[in-house]
Structures are given as structure tokens and as C-alpha cells.
Write a structure and sequence with these properties.
The structure holds two protein chains of two kinds. Chain A is an all-alpha fold. In chain A, 73% of the residues lie in helices and 0% in strands. Chain A contains five helices and no strands. Chain A starts with a helix and ends in a 16-residue tail after the last helix. Classes of the chains: A mainly alpha, B mainly alpha. At the A-B interface, α3 and α4 of A face α2, α3, α6, α7 and α9 of B.
Chain lengths: 183, 191
């Protein structure tokens, strides 16, 4: 190894990073070259100095401060979880209530419609044949036709509900909404 | 038990919510993280704040910690990022307020440093290293003092390994010029 090579090697690379073979070659050269030996020694001293650099002690209360911040974080997380589970329970209750109300409404509609339909069909024949002279119908006939409409509406509404509930199983952003119910 | 294994277990327990295990990790690494923060920020209050934030952030993000690796480089990387953010904010604040940076808060100020490092020669060496540019002093501290490998230092500081070698080389060059022969002789005597 030449002195220039050694100089640039020592200047550019920390001694610790040099491969063992290179380090021993360097040592061999330095033992016969006083200039390189001086440079290597000074580099060693410098690196020892840096490794002996003081490590300031952290303030005594630092660990306690960190522990207290983590405890606060924990309690905040617990309370957030509790409040989230409360909100979820309320939502579930409202959903159940909504379903019950819708089912009841649909059942009433269906009963009315069937009743009207049966009365209309029995007394006046098929309800569809009487649409043209709706204005001339008597009370009972009108009731039959309205009930028929209610049935159709209720079925459509139920169809909508089932479609919604099928498309948004667990995604909270896509939870179905019902008119009149806050989810 | 192997210290790394112990540390890994503590980290896994902390991840499962065991705050006592995390307290052990804090106890083990707080001085190193504080020293690194102080080396970068040169401000005791800021170093304390950054150390606290680093541990709190580590606790929150423990699920991202790779338990097959040592804990310290991971927390040191968090502390370095927080310190960089702190410095950026300080510069932005100084620009907004149209005033100079608060030079009095720097760790060079002998008072606070005297409280942290009692030995005169160590204090002098510390001041010399902190007089280097921040990236160089952080690299020196992590590589020589905290005995990290070049790759680990690079990962911690978020730069390439080649950059770390350059930073270390420049730092050694600058220190060689600034260190007085009497200091080198004293260190040589101690060796």
C-alpha cells in the first residue's frame, strides 16, 4: 500500500468500517512508516475521543412524564371506545325499531289492501276495469282502489329496504337510511 | 436473557397494552434518545419535549415496530423526525415573527450544559461536536457514541449510507482542526 492510498482511506472511511484484512495491511504499513503511523494514531485518538463523548442524563422526571402522558392516552382511548360502543348500541336499537315500524306499516298496508281488494272484487268485479270511471265510483269502490295502490306502494318500499340492506352489510358509511329515522 | 430478546418481549407486551413493559423500554432508552435530541436541537427544553413525543408516538405506533430488529434505531428515527419538525417550525416561526432565532436557547450556553455534563473535558468535547452542522453532529453521535453501524445511522437519519460516510469524514476533518493538541494528548494518556 502507498502512503497516499492510506491517507485517503483513513480520511474517508471510519476505521471501524474497514475490513479486517485491510486494517491489518494498514497496520503493517504503518509499523514501517512513521508518518502514516502518526496519522493512524491521531485518527485512533480522535475516534476514541468521539466514542467517549458524554451522554447527558435525561431529566429525572422525564420517564414519569412519559408514563403520565401514556396513561392519559390510555384513558382517552378507553373513553373513546366506550362512547363508540354506546353510539353503536344506539344505532342498532334504532335500526331494530325502524325495521319493526316498517314491518308493522307494511302489514297494515297489506291488510287494508287485501281487505279492499276482496271487497271490491266481490262487489264490483276486477278493480282494474273500474279505473276509467273512478270519479263515478261509490265510496266502497274507491276504498278498494286506494287499498290496491297502498299495497303496490308498500311492496315497492319493502323492495327498496331489502335492496339497501343487501348492499350495505357492514360498511358504516353505506348504512341504509329510512325516511323518518336517524341512523 | 439476551438484552435484545428482553427488549423484543417488552415491545410485544407493550403492543398488547402492557404499560409497565413500555415503561421498562422508556427507562432503558430515555437517556440515549434525550442525548440524541439534545445533540440535534441544542436546546434542553426542546430535547425533553421531543423525547416525550417520540416515546408517546412509539407507544401509539407499536404495531408498526418490527420486533425482529432492535428497538433503539426505531425510536431514534422517530426522535430525529420529530426534532427535524421542531427545527422547521422554529425557523418558520422566526420568519413569521421577522426576528432572529433564539440563540440563547441553544445548548452551547454553558449554564444548561453544565447541569447536564459535569466533567469539564466532556463538556468541551460536547461543545465541539455541537459546533458542527447538525447532520454531522447527529451522525457522529449515533456512529461513535451510540455505536450504531453506518447503515443503521443512515436509516435513522433517513439518508443514504454514502451520505453518512461523507458526513463522518467531514466531521472528523473539522474536529481534527478544532481539537487542541493538549486535548488529544489527554485522551491519549487515558487510553
Amino acid at each position: 500500500m502507498k502512503c497516499e492510498e492510506i491517507t485517503s482511506l483513513i480520511r474517508e472511511t471510519p476505521l471501524r468500517e474497514l475490513p479486517a484484512a485491510l486494517r491489518s495491511a494498514l497496520g503493517r504499513h504503518a509499523s514501517n512508516c512513521p508518518a502514516c503511523e502518526r496519522m493512524l494514531a491521531s485518527e485512533r485518538i480522535l475516534q476514541t475521543a468521539m466514542s467517549r463523548l458524554a451522554e447527558p442524563k435525561a431529566p429525572a422526571q422525564l420517564a414519569a412524564d412519559i408514563a403520565s402522558r401514556i396513561a392519559q392516552l390510555d384513558s382517552a382511548r378507553d373513553s373513546a371506545e366506550r362512547s363508540e360502543s354506546r353510539i353503536l348500541a344506539t344505532k342498532r336499537r334504532r335500526t331494530k325499531l325502524g325495521w319493526a315500524a316498517m314491518s308493522l306499516g307494511a302489514l297494515v298496508c297489506l291488510t287494508c289492501a287485501l281487505y279492499g281488494l276482496s271487497v271490491g272484487a266481490w262487489r264490483f268485479g276486477s278493480p282494474t276495469s273500474t279505473i276509467a270511471d273512478f270519479a263515478h265510483m261509490d265510496e266502497l269502490r274507491r276504498m278498494g282502489l286506494v287499498a290496491y295502490g297502498l299495497l303496490f306502494g308498500a311492496l315497492l318500499y319493502l323492495q327498496g329496504i331489502f335492496t339497501h340492506s343487501g348492499s350495505a352489510p357492514d360498511n358504516p358509511r353505506r348504512r341504509m337510511t329510512f325516511p323518518g329515522f336517524r341512523m | 436473557m439476551d438484552p435484545c430478546e428482553e427488549e423484543r418481549r417488552a415491545a410485544l407486551a407493550a403492543r398488547a397494552g402492557d404499560t409497565t413493559a413500555f415503561a421498562a423500554l422508556v427507562e432503558q432508552h430515555q437517556h440515549r434518545v434525550f442525548g440524541l435530541s439534545l445533540m440535534i436541537l441544542r436546546n434542553r427544553a426542546a430535547a425533553e419535549e421531543v423525547t416525550q413525543d417520540a416515546f408517546v408516538r412509539a407507544f401509539i405506533n407499536l404495531d408498526r415496530y418490527d420486533a425482529t430488529r432492535p428497538f433503539y434505531p426505531w425510536i431514534a428515527a422517530i426522535a430525529v423526525r420529530l426534532a427535524q419538525t421542531w427545527l422547521r417550525r422554529r425557523v418558520q416561526y422566526a420568519r413569521r415573527e421577522d426576528g432572529p432565532l433564539d440563540a440563547g436557547a441553544e445548548g452551547h450556553a454553558d449554564g444548561p450544559l453544565r447541569e447536564l455534563i459535569s466533567d469539564e473535558r466532556s463538556r468541551k468535547l460536547w461543545s465541539l461536536v455541537t459546533s458542527l452542522p447538525r447532520a454531522q453532529s447527529a451522525a457522529v453521535f449515533l456512529y461513535y457514541k451510540q455505536d450504531m453501524k453506518v447503515d443503521e445511522v443512515a436509516q435513522t437519519l433517513g439518508v443514504a449510507s454514502g451520505t453518512i460516510k461523507t458526513l463522518l469524514s467531514r466531521a472528523r476533518h473539522a474536529l481534527r482542526e478544532r481539537l487542541e493538541p493538549s486535548d488529544l494528548e489527554a485522551i491519549d494518556d487515558e487510553m
